[in-house]
């Protein structure tokens, strides 16, 4: 069955992920949902006369809701029947659509890798050519857009209570991983009954690291399909995209995040192929890429990427 979930003041959580939040939609494993997501607060809306237009739903949310613990507007939660702690929730991104005619990028004192470069808060509106999937940056170049969801999350363990939307974790959240794009399948561990899935933080374009703290932020609509695998929860989110497996970790220390992401790749190979742990270790050193996901979300992210085509036949 296919469902539609609009972003309204009654179907979003602004700035937080709450395992006690009431579901706004209930679905079965195997169902798909077209989800509307929004991006930014009042200070990120285009100025009058800019030629860009904020979505009516965005203005309604800003008028009626207030952020709590974080800045991201998240649509959901979605209750997936049959999902229970210890299960794996597979989220397949079938399609992503640019939902508005602009994106925004902001710099702010104290934020980003180089926090001293921002003297005051400045939000820059950048028109999007949705037909061509391109944008002309104010300093000249025309760039191809590569939209993805910065936040895909399940609710964390209820024992920890409500958490802010900024820091990612084993539940996913603000991963800011560019592989969370159309065609990807994201595996998330389930911590609460029904999983309680949320999506948001749409990005039209972002480089690894998200250096100034924001990407080309925008509203996205996504068609996502949900499937539950019983008793196979991964330790942390994993992504399968373009015949590549991506393992991740998030930690206040980037070295720890990178080490754990790499170890998870070695473990994945040893578990899912005929390679020994030692040969998997060697294979990763020769053929896997260990990358910085983001540096700006309190917990830094690292991901390890391996092309499955590098594996021997029958492995």
From TrEMBL:
UniProt-recorded Gene Ontology molecular function terms:
hydrolase activity, acting on carbon-nitrogen (but not peptide) bonds, in linear amides
List the InterPro entries hit by this protein, alphabetically: FmdA_AmdA
Q: What is this protein called?
A: Acetamidase
What organism does this protein naturally occur in? Paracoccus yeei
């Amino acid at each position: 069955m296919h469902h539609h979930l609009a972003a309204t003041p009654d179907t979003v959580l602004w700035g937080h992920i709450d395992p006690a939040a009431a579901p706004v939609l209930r679905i079965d494993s195997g169902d798909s949902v077209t989800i509307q997501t929004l991006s930014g607060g009042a200070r990120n809306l285009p100025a009058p006369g800019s030629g860009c237009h904020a979505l009516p739903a965005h203005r309604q949310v800003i008028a009626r809701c207030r952020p709590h613990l974080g800045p991201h507007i998240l649509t959901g939660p979605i209750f997936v029947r049959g999902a229970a702690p210890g299960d794996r929730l597979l989220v397949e991104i079938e399609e992503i659509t640019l939902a508005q005619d602009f994106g925004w990028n902001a710099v702010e004192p104290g934020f980003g890798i180089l926090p001293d470069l921002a003297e005051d808060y400045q939000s820059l509106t950048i028109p999007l050519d949705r037909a061509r999937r391109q944008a002309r940056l104010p300093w000249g170049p025309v760039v191809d857009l590569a939209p993805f969801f910065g936040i895909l999350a399940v609710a964390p363990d209820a024992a920890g209570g409500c958490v802010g939307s900024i820091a990612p974790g084993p539940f996913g959240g603000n991963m800011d991983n560019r592989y969370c794009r159309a065609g990807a399948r994201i595996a998330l561990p389930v911590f609460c009954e029904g999983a309680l899935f949320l999506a948001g933080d749409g990005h039209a374009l972002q480089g690894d690291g998200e250096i100034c703290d924001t990407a080309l932020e925008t509203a996205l609509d996504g068609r996502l399909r949900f499937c539950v695998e019983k008793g196979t929860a991964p330790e942390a989110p994993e992504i399968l995209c373009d015949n590549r497996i991506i393992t991740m970790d998030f930690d206040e220390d980037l070295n720890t995040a990178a080490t754990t992401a790499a170890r998870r790749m070695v473990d994945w190979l040893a578990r899912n192929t005929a390679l020994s742990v030692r040969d998997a270790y060697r294979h990763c050193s020769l053929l896997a890429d260990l990358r910085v996901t983001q540096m700006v979300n309190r917990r830094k992210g690292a991901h390890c990427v391996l092309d499955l085509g590098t594996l021997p036949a029958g492995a």
